[in-house]
Structure formats: structure tokens, C-alpha cells
Amino acid sequence: AAELEYESVLCVKPDVNVYRIPPRTSNRGYRASDWKLDHPDWTGRLRVTSKGKTAYIKLEDKVSGELFAQAPIDQYPGIAVETVTDSSRYFVIRIQDGTGRSAFIGIGFTDRGDAFDFNVSLQDHFKWVKQETEISKESQEADTRPKLDLGFKEGQTIKLNIGNMTTKKGGAAKPRVSGSGGLSLLPPPPGGKIAVPPIPPPSSTAIANHVTPPPVLKSSNTNTADILLDLDAPASASKAPASATTDLWGDFSTAS
């Protein structure tokens, strides 16, 4: 698996200074002011790479790209990379060769922004390593847990109740009974039609008072004259005596 991992570049800075530092005499940390900052022991290019979960600080020649020293880093912050107590532009790194020997040297950047980028590239890489470790741990714990079987066993069934209505196989659903205080409507008649009550025929009193005019018959002229006599008879009777009524009938007979 290690052979299949590829190396990626995290940060490249063209100018870095390397210093030989005196051994640390106390646990309070390194101080850049104890170094000969005006006379660096080596100057070149810094490149931060990663392969798998391990990061590498590589010091290379600016022109040829030849490797001068390399510092593998397994965790950050840690003993492989330390900051100094009196500046943010200088660090102490632990370099190693192929034989297993190691030494501590000081590195420094002229620009403060370069030092910030170098620090952030290491922080981002090991933040990713931490997340990958947690995800791998959770997946392993999930594999060891007993799996929950939610499938139906042979012959197992379930029953569903939709609202308050239950149905039986081969039968119709029961009607819902209204609660107390509710209104229940009677079902419509089997024919589906409601009979309209008949309209009563007009009465003779309404005809006499001119409320509803009688139908006009088209049989003959004599019948038309009789109908007109019936319509005008009440008004004439109220104004003339009985003899005048008799003469009125005679006038209509002469006219016909």
C-alpha cells in the first residue's frame, strides 16, 4: 500500500536560510536571537510534500534541485517541527538521513508571509490526517457491531389501520357514525330523484278578483264574449242596479 501512495506538494518557498543552532540548555524553548541570523550556514529552496499521512520538509538547491536535507514529520505540532519563542519567522526542524542519524537545525524566512504559508500547510495536512483517522475508526466500529435484521420472516404479516375505517375482505367499508351533537343526513331514495309537489289549479275567487287571468279558448267568438262578461260583471254590479245588469246582457247579445 505504501508503494501505491503518491507524493503531493503542499508548499514551495524559493528562499530559506539554514542555521546551526546550539544545543538547548533548558525546557523553555529555542530563541532565534541566539543564532547568527546575519550569517546563515546555507541558503536554498524549501519544499513541503506529503506521502500518505507523513509530511516531509525538503531543503533543496535553488539551481540543481539537489536534496540538501530532509525532515520527515509524523505529527504537528511535535518534536519534528518547533517554533521559537521570540519570532514567528524561525523554526527548529529535525532532519534525518537514510542511516537513522538525526540533527536539529534552524530555518528562517525573510518574508513573514512565507513563514505563515509554511505553518498553515503543515496544519492543513495533519488536520486531514486526523479526519481520515476518525472516519476509519468509525467504519471499523460499524463493521464490528451486530447488524440489525429488519426483513420479514417467513409467514410474517403486518396490519395497517387507515384512519378509523377497517375493511374486510369481500365486504364494503362500514359507514362512519357521527358523534353526539352532529348532523346525520338520510340517504337519497333508490331512484335518485326527488318528487316535485304538484301546482294547485287556480281558484274561482282568484279569477273573479283579476289575480290570475283565465286561459283564452279559441273555439268561437261567442265564448270570447262570455269570458269578457265574466271579467266585467263584478265591476258593473257594484255600480248599477239589477235591471241595468239585465240590459247589459241584452247589449252584449245584440252585439254578438
UniProtKB/TrEMBL annotation:
It is found in: Cell membrane; Cytoplasmic vesicle, Clathrin-coated vesicle membrane. Residues 235-246 have a biased composition (Low complexity). Keywords: Cell membrane, Cytoplasmic vesicle, Endocytosis, Membrane, Phosphoprotein, Protein transport, Repeat, Transport. Residues 6-163 form the NECAP PHear domain. Its main location: membrane. It comes from the Eukaryota. Pfam families: DUF1681 (PF07933). The keyword Transferase does not apply. The keyword Phosphoprotein applies. Residues 235-256 are annotated as: Disordered. GO terms for biological process: endocytosis; protein transport. GO terms for cellular component: clathrin vesicle coat; plasma membrane. Involved in endocytosis. Belongs to the NECAP family. This is Adaptin ear-binding coat-associated protein 1. It comes from Atlantisia rogersi. The gene is Necap1.
